[in-house]
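Priority: medium. Attachment 1 of 2:
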């Protein structure tokens, strides 16, 4: 295992560093301490050719100008919260409004836009980057001083594990995830429409026009949302299903998982032979197929466009605070939040 540290940029007098973990198979994961953002994941195709499989940039300016959360950790609460407010113990909290009057992915300056402290832990068969950050009481409207610790571990089996730990000095809400856009073709050679996705999920959340959950939990049966035995992404971009149309011709939906830590999510690109298995302890995964990706900038020389990458955001349900029948995102004072997701790359 090998670790390379280099300067990425200067921002407001602070240095942003790139940490590249390289395992004995040549797999590389590059991360910057701004937003714990994954900028590159280099993995082999079926012929052993090493190429990048996530959307990312090489400059901080591009992250600031164009990034729809490429590779970043999002939170304190991932996804949308209707009207940017929720009530806890009789107090209504007003969060930053950054999406049509709603709150999205932690607000205007969420966990994706702050610089984290970093420590490196080296072990015989793994490398870990430990990121820490104290989100102060009231940050983006959330209650409680929340201490976060996020660990990225790469091992020699081409597995990247991300664990999220948090503790708050007041009752609060937490629901964080990583917002990487995957594209297994390698160096963005093709869009993701031909990627095949398998999900252990038989229910998903209905969304309204603002992409906020209506509260209805729908069965996947006989719809383009049935990924139980595998389905190409294009079957949901080219369909009359009103839920796909609402999302901008694609998916932007939370799926409830029926299993955990057991290959519950599997993405495969037949042309390259690359696969990605995702396992988590979380109740849901949000599938976002890059329906809103703008086309007025480039990503390392490739024109950005719709469907150039897809996100598989393992997390609790968005807007759960306003739907008492959803699994809760409440974190009690002094109790530990723990979320873990493993990304296993195959070829
Ligand atoms: C995703 C989506 C959104 C949004 C964004 C960049 O997770 O849920 O609709 O466009 O992130």
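Attachment 2 of 2:
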């Amino acid at each position: 295992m090998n670790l390379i540290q280099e300067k990425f940029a200067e921002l407001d007098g602070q240095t942003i560093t790139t940490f590249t973990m390289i395992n004995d198979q040549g797999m590389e994961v590059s991360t910057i301490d701004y937003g714990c953002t994954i900028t590159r994941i280099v993995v082999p195709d079926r012929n052993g050719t090493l190429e990048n499989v996530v959307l990312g940039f090489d400059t901080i300016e591009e992250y600031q100008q164009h990034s729809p959360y490429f590779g970043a950790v999002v939170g304190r609460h991932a996804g949308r919260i209707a009207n940017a407010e929720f009530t806890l113990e009789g107090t209504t909290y007003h969060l930053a409004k950054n999406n049509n009057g709603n709150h999205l992915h932690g607000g205007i300056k969420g966990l994706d836009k702050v610089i984290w402290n970093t420590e490196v832990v080296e072990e015989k068969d793994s490398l870990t980057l430990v990121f820490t950050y104290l989100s102060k009481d009231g940050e983006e409207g959330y209650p409680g001083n929340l201490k976060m610790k996020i660990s990225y571990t790469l091992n020699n089996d081409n597995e990247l594990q991300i664990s999220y730990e948090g503790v708050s000095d007041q009752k609060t809400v937490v629901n964080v995830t990583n917002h990487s856009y995957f594209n297994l073709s390698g160096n963005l050679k093709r869009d993701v429409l031909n990627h095949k996705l398998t999900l252990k999920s038989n229910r998903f959340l209905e969304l309204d026009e603002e992409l906020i959950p209506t509260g209805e939990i729908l069965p996947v049966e006989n719809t383009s949302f049935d990924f139980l035995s595998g389905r190409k992404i294009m079957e949901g971009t080219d369909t009359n299903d009103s839920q796909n149309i609402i999302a901008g011709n694609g998916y932007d939906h939370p799926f409830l998982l029926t299993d955990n830590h057991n290959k519950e999510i599997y993405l495969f690109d037949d042309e390259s032979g690359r696969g990605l298995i995702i396992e988590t302890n979380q109740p849901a995964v949000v599938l976002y197929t890059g329906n809103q990706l703008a086309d007025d900038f480039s990503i390392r020389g490739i024109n950005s466009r719709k469907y150039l990458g897809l996100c598989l955001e393992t997390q609790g349900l968005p807007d759960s605070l306003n739907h008492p029948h959803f699994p809760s995102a409440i974190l009690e004072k002094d109790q530990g939040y723990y979320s873990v997701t493993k990304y296993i790359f195959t070829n």
